Amino acid sequence: MTRVTSQGPLTGVRVIELAGIGPGPFAAMMLADLGADVVRVDRVGGGGFGAFPGDLLNRNRRSVALDLKHPDGRDLVRSLVAGADALVEGFRPGVAERLGLGPQECFAANPRLVYGRMTGWGQDGPLARTAGHDIDYLALTGALHGVGRAGERPVPPMNLLGDFGGGGMMLALGVVAALYAVRGGAPGQVVDAAIVDGVSVLATQVHALRGLGLWQDPRGVNLLDGGAPFYDTYECADGRYVAVGALEPQFYAELVRLTGFPLDGDEAPDRDDPANWPALRTAWARLFRTRTRDEWADLLSGTDACVSPVLDWAEAPRHPHLAARDTFVTPEGVTQPAPAPRFSATPTAVRRPPPRPGEHTDEVLAEAGVDETRIAALRAAGTVG
Fold first, then answer.
1. Active-site residue numbers?
2. Dihedrals φ, ψ of 233, to 5°?
3. What is the SS3 assignment for 56?
4. Is 202 exposed, middle or buried (0-12, 13-18, 19+ CB in 10 A)?
5. Is residue 197 in some structural domain?
6. What is the CATH number for 265?
């Protein structure tokens, strides 16, 4: 029988996280959710990064507060690095080097270290040292161009596609891959995770379809971008929405059968001819407005019609399917997404709530061999908090 633990597949891996915002903390959360012991290095005093009490992106890790502008603070980070497997940082290119915490200094302390770097533009290139945000990275890669209704302006897809999908998730994957290589005998190395690179990879299928002539450059006119009437959202009688994803002919046929489409009983036009899509969309919109969202859900849920109610943030955790799978958990009364993916032999869990900046300073420094007298002196000097 397979031995089951409750710590996750990265149990035994130590990661140092230099506090940042957005994709860096997301990557660190993913590693921590998978069982890694992630130590977040926050600012002394708790200002700036890490100053959002209860930020769920900071869950499952410990926090030390260090002054990285002070030589002793930087020395402490290098001491932590010496006993770690990986480090992740999200500074602009060159900042870690100016702090004396770049790859060269960290590899001197630990040649087997995986040094993960998270930026929007990457470590090199003409824009590398300029500011940017998710929307800028999406714009440059072409991804933002593809999100929105036909004839209307592009719509930012929150920061899920860039910061977290193309950024933090790619960094977490890169760190895990590099750790695997180190355990196979490879040296430590830098993982350069750039959001522009990651988002471009996510769009590989779109580029393939364009090359085959199966994807048009105007947004909102293609099979998967809201152009097809059988892959879109529709308003219901109560002003809420359903999502229709009946791409395959057999699923579309099931949708037609169960709903009685079209409403007037006349024969519906051929769905495979894009010239018919505007008329089909109008007919489907008319039909879906005849019932409430939940009435449609009652009729179509559990069938192959591929229709789901569009739930809001509060409704999602209560949906019977997500509830049955414990997709959301409520440790200490705080509802949040459960760690993913799932592992049969090394299950993951939310083990710790988001820490207060510096909450574990004494504990972590003691593990690194710093004695109580020195910790007290460093605290008195304001180097640790």
1. 133, 163
2. -110, 150
3. helix
4. middle
5. yes
6. 3.30.1540.10
